[in-house]
Amino acid sequence: MTAPWQETDVSDGAGDGPKKVTVIGAGIAGLVAAYELERLGHHVEVVEASGEIGGRIHTHRFPGAGPTGPFAELGAMRIPAGHRLTMHYIAELGLQNQVREFRTLFSDDAAYLPSADGYLRVRDAHGALVREFAAALPDRGYRDNTLLFGAWLDASIRAIAPRRFYDGLHDEIGVELLNLVDHIDLAPYRCGASGNRMDLHRFFADHPQVRSFCPPRLERFLDDVLDETSSSIVRLRGGMDALPRRLASRIRGTIGTGREVVGIDVRDDAVLLSIRQGARTYTRSCDYVVCTIPFTVLRRMRLTGFDQEKLDIVHQTKYWAATKIALLCREPFWEKDGISGGASFTGGHVRQTYYPPAEGDPALGAVLLASYTIGPDADALGRLGEADRNALVLAELSEMHPELRRPGMVRDVAGLAWGERPWSWGAATVRWGQEAALREAERREAARPQKGLFFAGEHCSSKPAWIEGAIESAIDAAHEIEWYEPRASRVFATARPSRSDRSA
């Protein structure tokens, strides 16, 4: 199958002969880079510090449940259907028959969200949400549909943004936006069983001009809000880890786990890697290297031969944490409560709670993604010890779901605090609050090579925090190496547009 970014002749003008490339990191960016480099005829070896592949795609399978038993996605768990590169690889790797709908926040009318009146069902929340939203507005006679639109936009933002971030932007999505929306017929966008919600994703798709009335620094954040509340999100039945596992099976070169890179020395004719394997540390001289690990990990290494601008971006790129806690329950009790899937916004320390579909033997139990937090909220949970973190989440969530207090209901608990994990020290770059020009400048600097050292990963992409971004950057790095000529001018080597740019 020909990839959508490829041209008819990929070898015309490329460097002579196959190249030997070492890829640091066996996450999705590293695996795609290796896969594409081999397709271009190069020899690849992948080194991974941890004992497993997949990076921030991390499917946890509960002990004793077997390969088809209950599992929890403690890393990436969803894919917007419009992410064409990710969907291409799913098809190319033969996983398209595993694609299923991912139901998200507020997609189930029986799910919950907090208000001043306590926990409310989504289907019953519109009255309280509109009252609370309208009370914070200056006096003006907005139409009922306009207030409903503003209330659900505010609720979506509150559910997705960390509390401190939401507090800082709450007043910025206000009067100017509502004044414009008030002149649009919103009736076609009412949704839900009783028509008391708003399809925000469809509204903004139909009215892109409205985006210009949001503050420029919130553009990226609004994109993520719309993606996360879209009805066009998918998952992989059986676990997201099928994607890295299937990719790894297609790579001919060695994928060596337990090999931690602790130093990188960039020279004119080689890149020297200091690699720790067990109790031994050795040095390897590499012709070309693709570094796909997060900058939070890279900046803890010994780095030499980097220019100052590159060191600055490595040390200044901001990552947000994410913490997930999953419960293996005796049964999907939420179904008896009328919830068939999707997610509740729980508030407090828990934030978001997801109800994955129960696939497999019901005797083995059902998984509840009890808590999904990002940013400062995730840091607060991540700093707690595992037992204290689990107890806090269980106590808070039991207020909304008292069934969790029943003896034997919770069989097992699994969690992962990405901000505390030594192979990541964070979940993703989140460039919320930055204007588009600054985001693009940082992306270009993050991706800029250092002689024979190239960079990939979601932090080098136009879609940070998504699998799509990791894939996009890996394709670019692979084709930069394909065209790289060490003795040619640096202008030629860095100015040639990437394949993903040329296919736009």
TrEMBL record:
Its EC number is 1.4.3.23. Gene3D superfamilies: 1.10.10.1620, 3.90.660.10, FAD/NAD(P)-binding domain (3.50.50.60). Signal peptide: none annotated. One of its GO terms (biological process) is amino acid catabolic process. Substrate binds at residue 78. Keywords: Oxidoreductase. Its cofactor is FAD. Residues 28-481 form the Amine oxidase domain. It holds the Pfam family Amino_oxidase. GO terms for molecular function: L-amino-acid oxidase activity. FAD binds at residues 48-49, 75-78, 261, 458. It is an enzyme of class 1 (oxidoreductase). It comes from the Bacteria. This is Flavin-dependent L-tryptophan oxidase RebO.
